[in-house]
Design goal:
The complex is a heterodimer of chains A (570) and B (249). Helices cover 58% and strands 12% of the residues of chain A. By secondary structure, chain A is an alpha+beta fold. In chain A, the strands form 3 sheets. In chain A, strands 3, 4, 5, 6, 7, 10, 11 and 12 form an 8-stranded mixed beta sheet that branches. Chain A has a two-stranded antiparallel sheet with strand order 1-2. A two-stranded antiparallel ribbon of chain A has the order 8-9. The termini of chain A are far apart. By secondary structure, chain B is of the alpha/beta class. Chain B has a single domain, classed as HUPs (Rossmann fold). Chain B is built from 6 helices and 11 strands. In chain B, the strands form 2 sheets. In chain B, strands 9-8-7-10-6-1-4-5-11 form a 9-stranded mixed beta sheet, with helices on both faces. In chain B, strands 2-3 form a two-stranded antiparallel sheet. In chain B, strand 8 and strand 9 form a beta hairpin. The chains are: A alpha+beta (570), B alpha/beta (249). At the A-B interface, helix 2 of A face helix 2 and helix 5 of B.
Chain lengths: 570, 249
């Protein structure tokens, strides 16, 4: 954090301010958002022809959230943002998602829309929309998906007809998070659509701002736009977050304003995709953190049989059974590894945006882009498994909804799907982030891993030896497999190894994160905390890092014969 | 009118207190510290009075180690205008705090001083009353409602039998009870601004106050663990045990 705070523009991120912000965000998350989480799940968002209503208490909580300024944390001060680093925002966002993921999604989507407008829209559009969106007075949505255009956005059909200073949008969008709700006076949709003579495929897609209510020249709200939510989905989890089917232009056409230039919409979306994917990665371990805290409290309280650990303690709960400890440590150690990886990624983008040296900026941009699919893919896959362990620790009670453990599992299940499935992340990591640059970003990561490996030699900490061994393995596996895959010419083989590669990179980068935790623990004054961190890291090296070897072997074993089978035989 | 609010840095209310190894007090090494919850209520009340246009300035005062600055910053982030820290490494007992607060009140001449009815660490419930006596001011303790009318205040107090309503002339002292209000959450822009608000640091010597302890701590120990109960076979057994073991009848 100190290095990030030293970047120009982040001078306000001093330790006292940062800790005051974390403190107050924690208070807000645990006292305002967390108590709404269960009711939100049970009541869910409701659709009527007049619009979507959120569960009781949601609107008031959102008003308190935006009035407290939380929405504005990392945004541009020109438009009322507080201009704090993305690294701090990552830590704060985790709290929203841990305490109430269905709520946290609303500001997450607004953030995506704000970045898209901030980076690519004209000054006039920025003047009209940014201030209110940054304050959270208006929320934002991202309208990409159509029934036939999911992972493949080239198939987008929504049309945009020029009409003077604006366009008329017609078409249907699905899976639109917070596409309609009753928490704010206006909702600003960002919509991908095609202009009449646009080229086919991805090069013919443009991005438009379509407000729910049109905005008058003086900033007041005008007429209702021809954009409506026509139904909401019934989902496995995040029930309080309305997932809308949006219909644009059922009557005269929805008025939309072009962002940037025509036919560049998809490129604009991709510039903010990293941010959104990082945010979902944070959700992945954030929800697992909540599952862990709940499981730990239960395990301390629940007594079953004589315990093998801490026999004389006044805690005789199942937490003192070795197998329950194994599950709790499995959760805790991977959550901490995922958190470090997300912080690395967020900090990399802060450096990429603000560092004064071009080369340093470019290097950190590559680092952030390399880590993004790992954070998004690995942390969410692992997050679902950890939420499942949270249920397991509860035993039969975990399967009972009232306990609350099941909700975390159901809520977490969307995270490896939206903002690009794990398969998409794996292709991104292997194709765009590794093969495309000839393995340059991976080589740079390996350089930093080797530096940590050397630093471990100077540590007298008993866990450092384990860290050294595990990190040595991680470096060796990452180096050999990445070279092999960069050289792989058979696209079927590469594609079939991609997810194993992503998971292996998650576990090896996790080893690097844990090794740095061990080094940091050496310098911690609080010995009890330092020892705890070393124990968690030691567990990771012994029990979790081993998963990397399985994925490493699976990549070696990738062969095309399975894929030559006739699919009809499956 | 100025309002002076006293805020104390105490062990966070969520943290389980443990006696230190020497048995001389509570172990405060590496544990979370926060503003005393009754003092948060005091800050909130002062801010509401100011927002209602009945006060011009809210000053947050804390006493103790230099980290008490953080507690003052919390009050500033809630909306207080400036802070005063009386810095000392010495242990401060209620009488010393009351004298220091009185010294500051004489400098600042506030129309109203609001303090928590007690701090959750030592539960003394003495500072406010001692301060009022030292200043020879009216005191309205355990307040659950405060209404200011010109230079008079109507205060509803929580007493054993129910609620008592009293009129007091200002300047006066109020101590807060739990039901007075619900403290606000600090807003993000105010957290950032708090750093730029003035915070003066004084010492007991500068205020010419003798802070010598008048009480001596002999020993601090954990309360005795509750013993397991016992099911008795008959009424005769019960009477026997009450008479001969518990010796209560």
């Amino acid at each position: 954090m100190a290095d990030v705070a030293a970047l120009p523009g982040y001078e306000d991120a001093t330790p006292d301010i940062v800790s005051a912000i974390l403190e107050e965000a924690g208070k807000f998350a645990s006292e305002v958002l967390a108590p709404l989480n269960w009711d939100g799940d049970q009541l869910g968002a409701k659709w009527t022809a007049d619009g979507v209503t959120t569960p009781a208490g949601w609107k008031e909580a959102y008003q308190q959230f935006s009035e407290s300024g939380w929405n504005s944390l990392a945004f541009d001060p020109t438009y009322g943002g507080q201009g704090m680093p993305g690294l701090l925002s990552a830590a704060v966002q985790e709290m929203w998602h841990s305490s109430n993921m269905a709520f946290g999604l609303c500001p997450l989507l607004t953030q995506g829309a704000v970045y898209a407008i901030e980076s690519h829209a004209s000054d006039e559009l920025k003047q009209t929309y940014l201030e209110k969106m940054i304050a959270g007075t208006w929320t934002g949505t991202m309208n990409l998906t159509e029934p036939q255009a999911g992972s493949d956005l080239a198939a987008v059909r929504t049309s945009a007809e020029p009409a003077g200073d604006h366009y008329l949008i017609k078409g249907q969008k699905i899976y639109i998070t917070y596409g309609d709700h009753d928490m704010t006076e206006n909702t600003i949709h960002l919509v991908l659509a095609r202009t009449p003579d646009a080229p086919a495929g991805v090069k013919g897609i443009s991005l438009f701002i379509v407000p729910k209510f049109l905005v008058n020249a003086d900033g007041t709200l005008g007429e209702r736009n021809d954009a409506r939510c026509v139904s909401i989905e019934h989902k496995l989890g995040i029930h309080a977050s309305p997932t809308c089917v949006m219909s644009f232009g059922d009557n005269d056409g929805a008025i939309g304003y072009l962002v940037g230039e025509e036919n560049r919409g998809l490129m604009y979306m991709f510039t903010m995709m990293n941010e959104a994917r990082l945010a979902v990665g944070i959700e992945g371990y954030g929800i697992a953190e909540m599952a862990y805290q709940r499981a730990l409290a239960f395990a301390r309280d629940r007594k079953q049989g004589p315990v093998l650990l801490e026999k004389d303690s006044d805690v005789q709960g199942i937490v003192n059974h070795p197998d329950v400890r194994r599950m709790l440590m499995t959760m805790r150690s991977q959550i901490e590894a995922a958190r470090v990886m997300a912080y690395d990624c967020a900090a990399a983008f802060d450096f990429a945006a603000r560092h004064t040296d071009d080369e340093v900026r470019a290097r950190f941009q590559r680092r952030g882009e390399l880590l993004t699919p790992i954070v998004k893919g690995w942390s969410t896959e692992v997050g679902v498994d950890l939420c499942s362990l949270g249920v397991q620790i509860h035993g039969g009670m975990g399967f009972i909804e009232e306990t609350g453990a099941a909700q975390h599992l159901r809520d977490s299940r969307i995270t490896p799907i939206y903002e690009g499935t794990t398969g998409i992340q794996a292709n991104d990591l292997l194709g765009r982030k590794t093969q495309y640059d000839g393995g340059k970003a991976v080589d740079e990561l390996l350089e930093d891993m080797r530096a940590t490996h050397e630093a471990l030699a100077g540590s007298a900490n008993p866990v450092a030896a384990k860290a050294k061994a595990a990190l040595g393995d991680a470096i060796e596996m990452t180096a050999s497999v990445s070279q092999k895959l960069v050289a792989e010419k058979n696209p079927v083989l590469a594609a079939s190894a991609a997810t194993d590669y992503l998971m292996m990179m998650g576990f090896t980068t996790g080893s690097w994160a844990m090794a740095r935790i061990v080094l940091a623990a050496d310098n911690t004054e609080d010995r009890a905390f330092g020892n705890l961190q070393c124990a968690i890291a030691g567990f990771y090296f012994d029990k979790i890092a081993t998963h990397a070897k399985a994925h490493h072997l699976a990549i070696q074993n990738s062969a095309s014969e399975y894929y030559e089978l006739d699919q009809a035989l499956l | 009118m100025k309002i002076l609010v006293a805020v104390k840095r105490v062990l966070d209310y969520n943290v389980k207190a443990r006696v230190n190894a020497e048995g001389t007090g509570i172990d405060l090494a590496n544990v979370k510290m926060s503003m005393n919850p009754f003092d948060e209520i005091a800050v909130e009340e002062a801010l509401r009075i100011k927002e209602a246009g009945k006060a011009d300035e809210v000053i947050a005062v804390s006493m103790g180690v230099s980290q008490s600055q953080e507690t003052i910053r919390t009050a500033l982030a809630m909306g207080a205008d400036r802070g005063i820290l009386v810095e000392t490494e010495e242990e401060l007992q209620p009488l010393a705090v009351a004298k220091l607060l009185a010294a500051i009140a004489k400098r600042e001449e506030p129309g109203l001083v609001i303090v928590g009815k007690q701090a959750i660490d030592d539960d003394s419930n003495q500072t406010g009353q001692m301060f009022a006596a030292l200043m020879d001011w009216p005191q309205a303790t355990f307040a659950s409602e405060v209404e200011i009318n010109g230079d008079k205040m109507k205060v509803t107090r929580e007493v054993d039998g129910g609620l008592e309503s009293i009129d007091v002339a200002m300047p006066a002292l109020v101590t807060t009870d739990l039901r007075l209000n619900e403290p606000r959450y600090a807003k993000l822009p105010n957290i950032m601004k708090a750093k730029k608000k003035p915070l003066d640091t004084l010492t007991p010597a500068e205020l010419e106050v003798d802070i010598t302890s008048r009480l001596k701590v002999v020993k601090v120990e954990e309360p005795e663990q509750r013993k397991a109960g016992e099911i008795v076979g008959s009424v005769a057994d019960l009477v026997d045990k009450l008479k001969n073991e518990a010796k209560v009848i």
